[in-house]
Amino acid sequence: MKSLCLTLFLFCQTVFNNFDFEYSNKKEFVQGIADCTVLANTFVPPTERVVILISVAQAVLESNWGTSRFAVQGNNFYGMIEIDPTSRHLKALRNPNIMIKVYDKKCESVADYINTLNTHPNFKEYQDLLVKQYISGNMDPMAIVKTLKSYAVDPTYVDKLIITMGGLLKSYPDIFQVSIRT
């Protein structure tokens, strides 16, 4: 049984590590981040899965639709900070003391974002609410997004996320459509 689990884990890691996407417009960017979020969510317990709409909205805000220097040069869509100066990184132009992580594949940025939300102590309120909502079976993305106020220094960040989420739902209903299969 152990070898089967290890084999499945290695297979899934290979699938994840080889998955990447290209984009040349906003819709392709949104679809790519959504697909990466779905894929990355399959590697975490259900109580730690990120709401796809929130993941995409944060990527849109943090990377300016994938056009920021960090997104283009480092596949970093969430402004993830690097603390190890020996790891690959980009330096912020306005503050060269800030190092931004560099990822080989775009989906690695999404996976690191999900891991950060689920493990960093700054997001304890997020983590607790996600578990509570999962157990109750009542997922409320608006309540979840309100727990992300510490993600950015901008005091209006949550408001911007909510506006972005509404715009994404309106502009890309086919990407965020929930369908029930029978």
Characterize the structure shown:
The chain has 182 residues and is mainly alpha-helical. It is built from nine helices and two strands; from the N terminus they run ααααββααααα. The chain has helices spanning 2-18, 26-41, 52-63, 69-74, 106-119, 124-136, 141-145, 157-171, 173-176, and strands at residues 89-91, 99-101. It has a two-stranded antiparallel ribbon with strand order 1-2. Helix 2 packs across helix 3 (52-63). It is globular and about 45 Å long. The model is unreliable at 1-12 (pLDDT under 50).
Tally of helical segments: 9
Strand order of the largest sheet: 1-2
Helix content: 55-70%
Please write the string of helix (H) and strand (E) elements: HHHHEEHHHHH
Taken from the alpha-carbon principal axes, the silhouette is globular
